[in-house]
Amino acid sequence: MIDFEKELEKFKPSAETDQVEEVIMSRDVTDVTDILLQMMKEKEEKK
Amino acid sequence: MNCFCCNSPLGEEDICKTCGQDVILYKRVIKNSNFYYNLGLERAKIRDLSGAVPYLKKAVSFNKKNTDARNLLGLIYFEMGEMADALAEWVISKNFQPENNRAQKYLDIVQAHKGRMEQYDSSVQKFKQALYYVGHDGGELALLQTRKVINMNPKYVKAYLFLALLYIQKKEYVKAEKALKRVVAIDVNNSTALKYLSELEGKTEKKVLFVRKAKSKKQEEDIFNDYKKDRAIIPTYTEKSDSWQAVVLLLAGILVGALFFNYLLMPSQKHALKTSFHASVNEYNEKLSAKNMEINTLNDQIASLKEEKAGVESELSAYNAEGGIITEYNDLLNVLVTYAAGDYLGALNLMTEVNPELVSDETFKNTYNNLKNEFDTNGPMVLYSRGYEAYEARDYETAKNYLTKCVELQPDFPDALFWLGLSHQNLGDKATADTYYTQIIDNYPGTAYAVQAQQLRGY
Q1: How far apart are CA B4 and CA A34, in angstroms?
Q2: Are B124 and A30 inside 8 Å of each other by CB?
Q3: What phi, psi does B153 have (nearest 5°)?
Q4: CB environment B258-280: b (16+ within 10 A), e (fewer)
Q5: What is the per-residue pLDDT for B50?
Q6: pLDDT digit string (tens) for A30-45?
Q7: ipTM score here?
Q8: Phi, psi for residue B2 in degrees, rounded to 5
Q9: Chain B interface, mutation test: which of A2, A12, A14, most B Cβ atoms within 10 Å?
């Protein structure tokens, strides 16, 4: 059975177009290649 | 594929030819990113938008520069009515690959339709209002708002789901199902929509069955009616009714009609009227609250403008009013003009009227200070010599004026006191002259002025 209140909590307002900057800032764009680079850097520093 | 260290193109080898960097892992990461992009693309092609999103997110988490994956992710957000998220993805994509990027085209298209963007923003605001209403016992208002949101943003999946939930809450299952079917038309595997639909399955089917049953019953009735009609066609013997029977039947008919009108037709009419009245009231309430907000904003604007006006007026009065800045400038100008005309005493008297504290201008302050310095340093001597010259010219009145100002500036000036006393005496004011002579005798005993003053005073 659907719990109305519980389902309601899942609904969050969307961002407006003038908040795109905030949306971008909130995105974590770190990828695996970044982690890879970081690991390699650390490895070289240890040497 | 380019090397992540030196950005030079990579070949089949596991080591970069240019910088010698081991690229086995890097190549695997890029392959994984592309693999997830392909999965996302497959999903998107069959309109499984919400199913494609996690794959595409994974693709960009492996390789943030996988612009195809990012652009597709933006496109999916756009298709689901989430324009801000779409724009964010395209802007990030363009940032990573400024040239030959499809994201630029998408951004251009969106920016060319400013009205659409405004409509989107307005729909988001209304959706926020709807969320607010539902949290504050305003179910009907929430429903109205959400319907408006959908009119403005017809692919807003989130709004359809919300609308469906509101209908489910109101037990309007058929309407809820309709909204959910719109979601499924946009996003075939939307898990929330499918969940709600599965909840509705039994309820809407019952209704359909009920409708079917009703239909079949009606058909049966129709058949029965036809059968009855058929039966009615068969001629039967009936007795002719009398006229009083006809009147009774007519009255009974009127009575039945009145009862039908009062108990069946009126309530449904009343209900319909009530519903439309409530809808109108809700709409007017909404309009009223919007207007009230507008009025409040305008009132705030008026208040701030009034405050601004008062500030400007007081500033203006500080310039124009008596003792204002402009008056101070005028006073200083008068001093300068009088001084330039050679009226030293006049300039000195006017100088006392200038209040330098009111004006912060540097030029004004410098001019004032220069003049004050001149009067403080040379004033007594200039006044004395002019007073003495006037006395010599037998202009005792002028001599008295100059010398009075002179002793006012420098009271310990016996020469000035002496000639001032003489000027008064020559003007016939012996009593005042004696006061000056007394000052000389008391304060400068033994001087030539004291001896002469004693002789002039006569004792």
Answers
A1: 9
A2: no
A3: -130, 80
A4: eeeeeeeeeeeeeeeeeeeeeee
A5: 94
A6: 888 888 888 878 887 8
A7: 0.85
A8: -110, 155
A9: A14
